[in-house]
Amino acid sequence: MTLMTLEETGGAANKVEDLLKTMVVYSDRAAASKVLTVQQRVLQQFVPGCPVRTAWWAMESLKDEVLFETSSRHAAEVDLLFIALTVSGELPQKIKAWLATVLTRNSRPDLALVVLLGTANNPPAEVNLLDNYLHEQSRHAGIDCFIYWHQQMSSSETSFLADVRHILADAPDCSCVPADRGGGEPRWGINE
Fold this sequence. Notes:
5 helices; Rossmann fold; alpha/beta; 6-stranded mixed β-sheet; 34% helix; single chain; globular
């Protein structure tokens, strides 16, 4: 997967302020697939029809100093931050350091953190040390934090690209041209 890709949904926005900025940091293909589903549901329920820009960052990219710095600066300016990880007990040190940097730099008063934690075993039945750590970091930064544990399918059991195609097929048409133009071939150009 690429280190970072941008996607926009809901059509072109006239102003940057009209755009909901989201960011996803994911550990692997299975985690990315899970966040696609959850992100779609959250956005449809709470901000239907709002144009969205999402930046996708692989957790692996945070090992590079330049990409760590760039992604943490970018994350400090988003409205909704998703972290999707497959974990086996605690957060990787690189994610802890990155999250601390992002929360320190946060410039958005309404930032919300959504953490999706996948585990090969059954999800914990009660609040654990990892939940406490994430809630404490968020509380200290003055942001909302939502944690969702789930049993993670292996990367071979899920198809990230199939999930993307399925979600995009259900997405509204992003063009600014009315669907019915009174016949003729649709044309796309700078003056159209």
